Amino acid sequence: MLIGVGLGPGDPELLTLKAIEALKQSDKVYVPGRMAAELVEPYAEPEILDFPMIRDYDTLNDIWKKNADHVANHASNGTVAFGLIGDPNFFSTFTHLKRVMNRYYPEVKISTVPGISSITSFASRTDSEIDSSFTVTDGSDTNHKIALKARHPRQLIDQFSKEGYDEFVFAEKLFSDKETIIKDLNDIPEQGNYFSILYAKKK
């Protein structure tokens, strides 16, 4: 099993209890750099894997495959954590590792522990209140959209479909005992509640 563990923005006091528990319980912990290693060291002995910030995708693919092979040696028979700054599902090194693992080692179960992201960290440190729709971009094409408070998910699906989105996930009350996650488009309801989210993706 492989767990992507969000370590937050860099303050050791901003690790979640769930992240700390995942680090403690893992047989092996990998990190992509020294900053992440320092956050992990109070709870586990991390091994740093090289993920260079380069744009040569042939070289990057070779590096990602090499790292995936290395991680799979332990994740195939035990529990491995990959700790990283921020959140493992937003602009993260882990997404590249996960993609390669799914391709070459589909038998390895993969999950994530969310961390405080750079987006929410920025709002906190700069005293920036955001109470309406906003855009996050790294300059690439927009292929994902998230609608909060998705009270009328079917209406949103119709709207997003016209914009070219064709893959949807509906969720309510995440991480609660009433959590609901629906990935089959036909099962997404007409009505959602205040704590609902619709995720849309262009394939």
What CATH architecture of the largest domain would you give?
Answer: 3-Layer(aba) Sandwich
Kindly report the spatial arrangement of strands forming the biggest sheet.
3-2-4-1-5
Helix coverage percent = 25-40%
Percent range for β-strand residues: 15-25%
Taken together, the total number of domains comes to 2
Q: Uncertain runs with pLDDT below 50, 5 residues or more?
A: none
Mean pLDDT: 95
Q: How many H/I helices?
A: 6
Distance between the termini: 27 Å
Kindly describe this structure.
This protein is an alpha/beta fold and 203 residues long. It has 2 domains: 2-119, Tetrapyrrole methylase, N-terminal domain (Cobalt-precorrin-4 Transmethylase, domain 1, 3-Layer(aba) Sandwich); 144-201. Helices cover 32% and strands 20% of the residues. The chain has 6 helices and 9 strands. The strands form 2 sheets. A 5-stranded parallel β-sheet has the order 3-2-4-1-5, sandwiched between helices. Strands 6-9-7-8 form a 4-stranded antiparallel β-sheet, covered by helices on one side. It starts with a strand and ends with a strand.
